[in-house]
Design brief:
The protein has helices at residues 31-46, 100-103, 111-122, and strands at residues 19-20, 51-60, 63-72, 75-82, 87-94, 125-133, 139-146, 152-158, 164-169. A nine-stranded antiparallel β-sheet has the order 1-5-4-3-2-6-7-8-9. Strand 3 and strand 4 (75-82) form a beta hairpin. The protein is globular, with a radius of gyration of 16 Å. The protein contains three helices and nine strands. It is 19% helix and 40% strand. With 170 residues, the protein is an alpha+beta fold.
């Protein structure tokens, strides 16, 4: 069975209804990142054993949303979460999970922890975040932050230790 971006299966059956949570980001997170942290927490809570591993800004049916990929028991779910991070707008299971789902097995640091750690150090507004691996095979969280001066900072955190592997910017 396949799902369409509208949250229905190919047969037209809804795969989910909008859900809302009261997930609140940890204190000390800059306002430009708080909604992203809330969206990650909302997405994780919407899927049993959910582990978010990819997040970026997007538009869905005319509204600004977070496009979030969540892994659960080897499966992948694609969710759109409201811009304020409080409500799942659409959810569907992906028939072919990304290879990134497997990378989560070695991660000791969650997506939320990675985003919060980078945000506390660099401030700004979260643009996107994903799990990836370096040339030597180290699994990292890549967190991209837009600064108030228009520059961008990308920080790669070791997903096992939380140590900064690399920082690059404009």
């Amino acid at each position: 069975m396949t799902s369409s971006p509208g949250g229905t299966t190919s047969g037209g059956t809804p795969t989910s209804t909008p859900t809302s949570t009261s997930a609140a980001p940890s204190s000390g997170v800059p306002q430009g990142v708080a909604n992203a942290v809330a969206a990650l927490q909302t997405a994780a809570a919407a899927v049993p054993n959910g582990q978010p591993f990819d997040l970026e800004r997007d538009t869905y049916q005319g509204q600004r949303v977070w496009d979030i990929k969540v892994a659960s028991n080897g499966n992948q779910f694609n969710l759109y979460v409201s811009e304020d991070g409080s409500t799942v707008v659409s959810q569907e299971q992906d028939a072919t999970p990304d290879d990134d789902v497997q990378k989560l097995q070695s991660a000791q640091i969650s997506a939320v922890e990675a985003v919060e750690r980078v945000a506390r150090e660099h401030g700004g507004t979260l643009k996107e975040m994903e799990i990836d691996s370096t040339d030597d095979g180290t699994v990292v969280w890549q967190v991209e932050i837009a600064q108030s001066d228009g520059s961008e900072v990308e920080v790669d955190l070791n997903a096992s230790t939380g140590e900064v592997v690399q920082t690059s910017g404009d």
